[in-house]
Amino acid sequence: MKAILCTRFGTPDELEIVDIAPPQAGPGEAVVRVAAAALNFFDTLIIAGKYQHKPPFPFSPAAEFAGVVDSVGAGVTEIAPGDRVMGYMGWGAAREAVVVPARQLVKLPDQLDFERAAGLTVTYGTALYALRQRAELKPGESLVVLGASSGTGVAAIEIGKIMGARVIACASSDERLAFARDHGADATVNYAAEDLRGALKKLGGAHGIDVIYDPVGGPFTERAVRAMAWQGRYLVVGFAAGAIPKLALNLVLLKSCDVRGVAWGAWTRREPQAQHALLTQIVDWYAQGRLSAHVHAVYPLAETAAALKMIAGRKVMGKIVLRV
Ligand SMILES: NC(=O)c1ccc[n+]([C@@H]2O[C@H](COP(=O)([O-])OP(=O)(O)OC[C@H]3O[C@@H](n4cnc5c(N)ncnc54)[C@H](OP(=O)(O)O)[C@@H]3O)[C@@H](O)[C@H]2O)c1
User: Fold this and answer.
1) Using CA positions, which residue lies closest to atom 9 of ligand 1?
2) How far is 27 from 12, CA to CA, in rounded Å?
3) Rounded CA separation 174/192 (Å)
4) Measuring from atom 33 of ligand 1, which residue has the nearest CA?
5) What's the CA gap between 68 and 31, in Å, rounded?
6) Which residue's alpha carbon is nearest to atom 39 within ligand 1?
7) What integer pLDDT is reported at residue 110 of this predicted model?
8) CA of 129, closest atom in ligand 1
9) What whole-number distance in Å separates Cα of residue 240 and Cα of residue 243?
10) Contact between 12 and 43 (Cβ < 8 Å)
11) Cα-flanking dihedrals φ and ψ of residue 3, to 5°?
């Protein structure tokens, strides 16, 4: 079978497409024929050796996939060959078949196609875990989403609206902000053209901003925290801008606010049953027409390098998917 392999840390152009032996299902495992795999920003880091996880070589990028169960190992009862499923595996999905623990797979409703399903897990999983478990977001609260047109940003907008928040989307261009509004944002700030702190202070009013969802970092973090409400919650989601920000703790003291980390991937390993329930909720919301699972572009597996360059070049709104 075909696989995209990273054999040394480097650029997308150093990835190789090769033939490898298909996997076998061990006890409790399932082999899935991958129809689509989705890429995330962290795939640009993992192949460069700049991510928190450094898999042993050779490995494939792509943390999430959708496809059809091909075979199952001993003891698997929850799924069967022929089932349409989606799943998460950290890395390794950019190949024609994967083997994963069967209990991690989620069955797909008929109306959810493979390309949308492939990209549902990481971004919506992160956003729901962040807003429900970590932020304890309440109806009527204000929610600021930085990098609002990113994969995880648009997921936070849509889930924030489902949870009853007033969503303020922040991004670097008017095109990105129009996209955010189309996905439910109530108000927008162009942080490339406006002073983020001043704009959020105006939008938050005397009360301030209750929850800030930050997958971008860099210079935006402190500007956003300065607009925070009394007992607000700032969510550390990621650092797409490159720089890991430092925060003056007097701001946290003065606002009696919380800085809360969002390590969704680690949480899925610590609480697999809760993660399965969370993904089932996301699939149900999709089936009810409440989530878009927006796909920006689909690339054939052989063009994984071009797909990764789109993400690294800050050119994507929503998800980039590989057709396998
Ligand atoms: N904590 C978790 O569990 C978790 C889970 C998934 C992802 N993440 C993290 O969340 C972040 C976003 O991931 P994603 O896959 O949603 O990313 P994405 O779709 O590629 O979007 C990244 C966004 O960051 C903004 N950005 C600012 N400076 C940038 C730069 N120099 N290069 C590229 N983008 C830049 C861009 O928006 P503007 O142009 O509007 O600024 C862009 O929309 C990543 O840091 C990722 O590692 C964390």
Assistant:
1) 238
2) 35
3) 10
4) 314
5) 9
6) 172
7) 93
8) 3
9) 8
10) no
11) -145, 145
pLDDT tens-digit map of 118-141: 999 999 999 999 999 999 999 999
Structure-token pair, residue 250: 């007097």
Q: Which residue minimizes the CA distance to atom 20 of ligand 1?
A: 41
CA 53 → CA 34, 38, 47, 79, 87, distances in Å? 23, 18, 10, 29, 19
User: What's the CA-to-centroid distance between 218 and ligand 1, angstroms?
Assistant: 11
User: Whose structure tokens read 């006890």?
Assistant: 27
Q: What is the 3-state secondary structure (H, E, C) of 212-248?
A: EEECCCCCHHHHHHCCEEEEEEEEECCCCCCCCCCCC
Distance 4 CA to ligand 1 centre (A): 23
In short, whether 307's Cβ falls inside 6 Å of ligand 1 is: no
Q: Let me know if 133 is exposed, middle or buried by CB neighbors in 10 A (0-12, 13-18, 19+).
A: middle
Q: Which of 117, 107, 104, 108 is nearest to 29 (CA)?
A: 104
User: Is 39 a pocket residue for ligand 1 (Cβ < 6 Å)?
Assistant: no
75 with 32: CB under 8 angstroms?
Answer: no
Which pLDDT belongs to residue 256?
98
| Spans of the chain below 50 pLDDT | none
CB neighbour list of residue 49: distance below 8 Å, 6 or more residues apart: 9
Confirm or reject: Cβ of 221 under 6 Å from ligand 1.
Answer: no
